[in-house]
Design brief:
By secondary structure, this protein is of the alpha/beta class. It contains 16 helices and seven strands. InterPro entries: FAM118 (IPR038916).
């Protein structure tokens, strides 16, 4: 694509319309689900952030360099990444291979490999537009959860002076506070965070304490029933076993819900089939364009549209203020 075509396409991209049902939502009625696409847009210099496949390949490479995985196993996992369709299973097997034979996932070498892969993340933030948009929405009450191991959002938020908090499902009290909206700048990592080996989980069995806790499950499922989830940069999230266990399998009448997924439209037939399939889950699939470069600008413009909506609370405050002013004037 030459420069003139790119300019024309971007001009067309700016004229794209947004779904009224989405931009008329109040920020506090939204919950963002952040996938690898967000990290890839923010830090393109780290291949491991671009996709699950790239992340697993980088971990295998780190395991080879750190000599924490037998060369035969390294070769076998490299084949699996290429051949296997279910990358979550491959990742789970990789974690098990670098964990004690007792089956316990901690301590393990997987965390060391992730720390090698995600070393000095803050130095690789090149395009913070998406993160700025997410923080803007969080400031107005939007909640955030992620399937990512990285903490790019928290790093950037702290640089902007925001009291960011990284949470995982192992901490019940914090999860309940977050779900009730009491941790404004909290980011729930449903797979855990690479800096905390105790919180990293890929298999739902690792969250038995969570899935068998009626209080936690009820409040999480209530979010899926009452909030509009907006999937950003998510490709495999709906196939993610943990996300399914927490939300999809347990929430009934999903077709009556209204969630949204922003996707790249590379192939029209695939895109419209995905739209039809996702409606069965109560998810409206929306294209941000046919080029990944459009993603950050689309999210920025979408955020601007959503933040234009006047909060009912603001109307109440304005009415109260006006009443106080009239009362004060009468007294004088």
């Amino acid at each position: 694509m030459d420069s003139s075509e790119r300019t024309t396409n971007r001009s067309e991209q700016k004229s794209r319309k947004f779904l009224k049902s989405l931009i008329q939502k109040q920020p506090r009625d939204l919950l963002l689900v952040i996938g690898t696409g967000v990290s890839a847009a923010v830090a393109p210099g780290i291949p491991a952030l671009c996709s699950w496949r790239s992340c697993i390949e980088a971990v295998i490479e780190a395991a080879d360099q750190l000599e924490v995985l037998h060369p035969g196993d390294v070769a076998e996992f490299r084949k699996k990444v290429i051949k296997d369709k279910d990358l979550l299973v491959v990742a789970h097997d990789l974690i098990r291979k670098m964990s004690p034979r007792t089956g316990d996932t901690k301590p393990n070498f997987f965390q060391d490999c992730l720390m090698e892969v995600f070393d000095n993340l803050e130095q690789h933030i090149q395009n913070p537009v998406v993160l700025q948009s997410i923080l803007r929405l969080m400031g107005r009450g939007t909640m955030v959860l992620t399937t990512n191991y990285d903490n790019l959002l928290e790093i950037f938020g702290q640089q902007q002076g925001k009291p960011m908090a990284s949470l995982d499902l192992k901490d019940k009290d914090k999860v309940l506070q977050w779900a009730r909206g009491h941790i404004k700048y909290g980011v729930l990592h449903i797979h855990g965070l690479y800096t905390d080996p105790c919180g990293m989980v890929l298999d739902p069995s690792g969250y038995k304490d969570v899935t068998q806790d009626p209080e936690v499950m009820e409040i999480l499922q209530n979010l899926y029933r009452t909030k509009s989830f907006v999937f950003l940069g998510c490709g495999e999230t709906l196939r993610d076993q943990i996300f399914q266990a927490l939300f999809l399998y347990t929430v009934k009448n999903k077709v009556d819900l209204e969630h949204y997924m922003l996707v790249l439209k590379e192939n029209e037939d695939h895109f419209f089939k995905l739209q039809a399939d996702m409606l069965l889950h109560g998810i409206k699939v929306v294209s941000y364009g046919d080029c990944f470069e459009y993603f950050p600008e689309y999210v920025q413009d979408l955020t601007t549209q959503i933040c234009k909506q006047r909060s009912p609370d603001a109307d109440r405050v304005d009415s109260t203020t006006l009443l106080e002013m009239l009362t004060s004037a009468r007294i004088k």
